[in-house]
Amino acid sequence: MKTPPLHGLKTLSYLPKFTEGDDFPVSLAIVQAGKKDQGLYHCCLKNMYGKASAEFNLTSEVLEHLSSLQDVEGLEEIEFLELMFREDFISDSYFGNSLHGRIITEELHFGEGVHRKAFRSKVMQGLVPVFGPGHPCVLKVHNAIAYGTRNNDELMKKNYKLALQECYVQNTAREYAKIYAAETKPLEGFGEVPEIIPIFLVHRPKNNVPYATVEEELIGEFVKYSIRDGKEINFLRRDSEAGQKCCTFQHWVYERTSGSLLVTDMQGVGMKLTDVGIATQAKGYKGFKGNCSISFIEQFKVLHLCNKYCEMLGLKPLQASGQKQRKPAAPKVKALPTSSTVKKTAVSTQTAKRT
Predict the structure, then answer these.
(1) Pairing of the two strands 211-216 and 200-203
(2) Among 71, 86, 101, where does a domain finish?
């Protein structure tokens, strides 16, 4: 609802209804703001618990600062979407209201995989409260040409499906990690648990590859705690606290879903993880299908060795006592054409060591 300005106050819109339990921020974007948009912007929210308000004065000085950013190389306007979950997160998710902002992205990528490149980016404006100005991020750009697509419309659709699938997979794994953390918190001596960082869907309207994902940049030594080819002999995985807790997390998810789902490709810096994948049985799990081959589940059953953290959670051993391990068959990973079945890339995106 718009009303005429009153004593310099601009009332732009009125939002009478909000979704219960939706804590995603509401934002107002003024595209190509000019002199006619100057004024005091006032936002007021009221409900049965009280009232909250905020103001922002769009002055000529602010407009001048915005204009100075127009000439910055690599600067682009984006639409930023966060995947939200309701109580039954495995089958009930949705994208919240969009945030509008500007980011500046380095021209050269620092990580590359089969169909994805990773670029370092920095938030310049907007995206608050998720990312503040100056926050270093990683922008992952998916290129569907690697799948044989040549038509521009098909390329855009495939680009969107790849970015969307990555958001669903990693953020679903993140929800499991939150529950895992809550269940381990009362256990004396268990300590810190791995956190899977969130990733967000980004629309870049002026870019020829319009959809991408963005996440915070992890700074430090990047380590793979679980690997897709089934190799269990990894000292950092076997001996480090983070590695053992990642293995326990995999076991916990596997048991919680009755062997129907496994979080794999666990990698990151310390206890912060990214680029994870999910393997499911052929029919999926509660309507959710992962992006990794079912063979990863079979490998995990054969190769997983319980550690003290598995015992603290009371997880059941996957192998009978004294059972000899057998070498699993190499996984067969195929490219899947839909958003719910797209093959997970193994691209490294946080440090140059991940290429």
Answers:
(1) antiparallel
(2) 71
Query: Quick check: is 252 in a domain?
Result: yes
pLDDT above 70 covers what percent of the chain? 72
Mean pLDDT score, 2-20 = 43
Among 26, 44, 71, identify where a domain stops: 71
Question: Which CATH number characterizes residue 259's domain?
Answer: 3.20.200.10
User: Given a cut of 70, is residue 132 above it in pLDDT?
Assistant: yes
H/E stretch holding 244: helix 241-256
**If residue 295 lies in a helix (H) or strand (E), which one and from where to where?**
helix 295-303
Instruction: Provide the pLDDT for residue 32.
Output: 62
Residue 20 located in a structural domain: yes
Give the chain's domain count: 2
Alpha helices by DSSP H, listed for 128-240, are 152-184, 235-239
Q: Residue 208 carries which DSSP code?
A: S
What is the distance between the alpha carbons of residues 345 and 336, in angstroms, rounded to a whole number? 12
Q: Is residue 153 part of a domain?
A: no
DSSP state of 267: E
Find which of 41-50, 137-146, 226-235, 340-349 is predicted with most confidence, using mean pLDDT. 41-50
Would residue 211 count as lying in a domain? no
